[in-house]
Design goal:
about 70% helix
Length: about 150
C-alpha cells in the first residue's frame, strides 16, 4: 500500500519503509484499532497513510514559509489522471476530498481506499457494501470531479 502512495514521486525524501513505520506508529498510538476484517484493516491503514501524507505536506509547506517543519514526500500515484508534483497539490487534493466527503461520503471513501490504499475496485466495493459496477461508476465520477477541482486551484 505504501508503495502505491509513493510510486510516482521521483523526488521523494522518505522511503516506503518509513511511510509504513510512521503509519504503524500512528495506528499504534490510537489504541483502539479493532478491524472487523482484513479489508477493514486495509481501509484503516489507507486512512492513516492519507493523514500522514497530508501532515507531512503541511509541515513541509510550513517549513518553506519559515516554520519548523521536517522533510516530507508528497507526490502520489497518478491514478486520478492529475499530475501531483508537490505539497500544494497534495493539500489541494486533500481539500477537494474534504469537499467531496461533504457532498458524497461514499465517493470520498472510495477515493481514499483506491488512491491511498491501493484497493482494487472489487475490494473497495466489498468493504463499502456496494456492487463493483457501482464502485466503478463512483470512481469515474469522483476522479472527474476531483480533477476539475484541482485544476481550478491552479
Amino acid at each position: 500500500m505504501a508503495a502505491s502512495v509513493r510510486r510516482a514521486d521521483a523526488h521523494a525524501t522518505i522511503s516506503t519503509a518509513t511511510l509504513v513505520h510512521e503509519t504503524w506508529m500512528k495506528l499504534a498510538r490510537s489504541g483502539t484499532l479493532a478491524p472487523s476484517s482484513d479489508l477493514h484493516l486495509k481501509g484503516i491503514v489507507a486512512q492513516a497513510m492519507r493523514q500522514y501524507v497530508i501532515e507531512a505536506a503541511r509541515r513541509r509547506c510550513a517549513s518553506k514559509r519559515g516554520g519548523s517543519g521536517g522533510k516530507a514526500f508528497v507526490t502520489l500515484d497518478t491514478s486520478l489522471d492529475v499530475a501531483m508534483p508537490g505539497d500544494r497539490d497534495v493539500l489541494a487534493l486533500h481539500d477537494a476530498l474534504v469537499e467531496l466527503a461533504r457532498m458524497n461520503p461514499r465517493q470520498a471513501t472510495l477515493v481514499e481506499l483506491r488512491f491511498f490504499g491501493g484497493f482494487e475496485a472489487a475490494e473497495a466495493a466489498s468493504l463499502l457494501g456496494i456492487a463493483e459496477s457501482t464502485a466503478l461508476r463512483d470512481w469515474r465520477a469522483a476522479k472527474a470531479w476531483l480533477a476539475l477541482q484541482i485544476r481550478r486551484w491552479h
